[in-house]
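Anyone up for a design puzzle?
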């Protein structure tokens, strides 16, 4: 997909998705989705030392990454499932908050991508050759903000219908220039581009999780469940911040929130991690490549500590270089993409910050 700034010019028609396409129910179960029960194997309970403040130890082990059997909402890029082994690591118990990011900014003077002047020379590299430069009044610092529609949408493939480029939107002004984060220190920081997350990690002495680490941590040893709490979709409202009602027209807020919720609002998973479903999407360090899962599965062996594809590739968007994001957000709807499922994965451009995109950090032993 195009970068957020490129989308300004393209009128958002090739917009970064909140929940990418309609679910693909047409594919047959893969070899991994057979009688063999998907399970987390070989979990080590040994904790090497006391976990740093705000983190928990994620024990290493083997598991099957990707869509579980009988998940009729799984998308094609969650397949085929494949065996992975992960070494133990520490992980933040919740997404990085406004207060934590503010401390980083106060100490370093860091300016996020959404707050910087726009570099047209960089943007046009990701656009078709010969694309004319838009007016300077449009090329202003900002980010993508969600907007509800006034009526039902017959076409949920056109993401521009519920996204809007808003000049002045940033982590300090998550809903636009007239909004703020006062009184929301415990909310997840958003409008964070990949570069911003990396800068925070360097300051904190941490790193972003790989996609496999993130999914392993979310699964927390459960065997074949679609959700971190088990297999019962009826528990969604009590366990995750998602979109309830008709998307993107009306959110009934059965979970208590229309947009973002404070971290640790909902129950933790069996590893002690909060918000591993819904609220905001989270960056991983992996390049998004539509061929990657097939490559891993074709090896027919356990892949140890995978770090993602060597290069980015998206067959539906040849100009894009994207990173994998995990976890879903407050925009994920049961009738649309259901990305609060453990195996759900999406992709977004590294320079794109959005209202429903944040991150958490990890630390190797």
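Challenge accepted. My sequence:
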């Amino acid at each position: 997909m195009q970068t957020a700034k490129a989308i300004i010019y393209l009128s958002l028609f090739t917009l970064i998705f909140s929940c990418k396409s309609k679910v693909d129910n047409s594919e047959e179960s893969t070899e991994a989705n057979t009688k063999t029960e998907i399970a987390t194997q070989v979990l080590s309970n040994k904790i090497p030392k006391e976990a740093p403040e705000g983190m928990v130890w994620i024990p290493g082990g083997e598991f099957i990454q990707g869509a579980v059997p009988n998940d009729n909402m799984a998308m094609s890029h969650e397949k085929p499932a494949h065996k992975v082994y992960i070494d133990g690591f520490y992980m933040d118990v919740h997404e990085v908050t406004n207060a934590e990011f503010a401390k980083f900014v106060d100490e370093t003077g860091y300016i996020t991508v959404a707050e910087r002047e726009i570099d047209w020379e960089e943007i046009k590299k990701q656009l078709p050759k010969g694309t004319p430069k838009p007016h300077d009044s449009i090329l202003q610092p900002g980010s993508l903000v969600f907007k509800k529609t006034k009526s039902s949408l017959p076409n949920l493939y056109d993401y521009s219908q519920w996204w809007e480029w808003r000049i002045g939107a940033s982590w300090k002004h998550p809903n636009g220039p007239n909004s703020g984060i006062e009184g929301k220190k415990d909310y997840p920081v958003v409008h964070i581009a990949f570069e911003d997350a990396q800068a925070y990690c360097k300051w904190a002495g941490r790193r972003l999780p790989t996609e496999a680490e993130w999914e392993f941590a979310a699964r927390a040893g459960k065997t074949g469940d679609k959700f971190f709490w088990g297999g019962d979709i009826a528990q969604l409202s009590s366990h995750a911040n998602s979109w309830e009602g008709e998307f993107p027209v009306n959110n009934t807020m059965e979970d208590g929130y229309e947009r973002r919720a404070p971290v640790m609002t909902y129950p933790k998973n069996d590893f002690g991690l909060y918000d591993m479903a819904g609220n905001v999407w989270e960056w991983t360090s992996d390049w998004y490549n539509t061929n990657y899962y097939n490559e891993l599965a074709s090896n027919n062996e356990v892949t140890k500590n995978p770090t993602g594809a060597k290069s980015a590739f998206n067959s539906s968007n040849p100009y894009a270089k994207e990173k994998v994001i995990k976890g879903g957000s407050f925009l994920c709807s049961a009738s649309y993409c259901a990305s609060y499922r453990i195996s759900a994965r999406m992709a977004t451009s590294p320079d794109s910050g959005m209202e429903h995109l944040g991150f958490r950090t990890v630390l190797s032993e």
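A detail worth pointing out: The first strand starts at residue 55 and ends at 58.
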